[in-house]
Design goal:
Helix content is about 0%, strand content about 30%. The chain is elongated and about 60 Å long. By secondary structure, it is mainly beta. Strand 5 (about 105-110) and strand 6 form a beta hairpin. It has 2 domains: about 10-55, no CATH class; about 75-150, Herpes Virus-1. It contains no helices and 8 strands. It has a 4-stranded antiparallel β-sheet, with no helix packed on it. It has strands spanning about 10-20, 25-35, 35-45, 50-55, 105-110, 115, 125, 135. One of its GO terms (biological process) is endosome to lysosome transport. It holds the Pfam family FYVE. It comes from Heligmosomoides polygyrus.
């Protein structure tokens, strides 16, 4: 059974929607920050009901500053690349010439997540911690810096 959120002394500090960048598409999560806990969950009915709620106690939480790595660096080797959503790429992100339609299919580079055409993704490469067999990557691997072939 769920624990009640209305406890004496508990104060709502803020709330809002954050977007989790998943491989297939971004997903919205509703967050509620109280003075002692952080609650988040999936939005089922707009601002009426939430499911899969998680509660994180803040008693042992520590904040630390992290340097901004920038958006152009490749992800850590142990994580799969976040895919650019299909709807955000009308053209190939490598050559810029191929326009996607029913005949020209979209592909994703498994190393950097960019949406690319078949002509720009003729290579496969085994990426450690992602797959035991070779997977589709950009032909610009190394040039684009999405993965090292060393």
């Amino acid at each position: 059974m769920a624990k009640p959120l209305n406890l004496y002394g508990r104060v709502l500090v803020g709330e809002g929607v954050l977007v989790k960048m998943c491989r297939k598409k971004p997903k919205q999560r509703q967050f509620f920050l109280f003075n002692d806990i952080l609650v988040y969950g999936n939005i089922v009915i707009s601002k009426k009901r939430y499911n899969k709620q998680r509660i994180i106690p803040l008693e042992n939480v520590q904040l630390e500053d992290l340097p901004d790595e920038g958006g152009n660096k490749r992800p850590a080797k142990k994580y799969a690349a976040v895919w650019i959503p299909d709807g955000e790429a009308a053209r190939c992100m490598a050559c810029g010439r191929t326009q996607f339609n029913l005949v020209q299919r979209r592909h994703h580079c498994r190393a950097c997540g960019r949406v690319i055409c078949g002509a720009c993704s003729t290579h496969t490469y085994r990426i450690d911690n992602l797959n035991k067999k070779p997977v589709r990557v950009c032909d610009g691997v190394g040039i684009w810096g999405c993965v090292s072939l060393d």
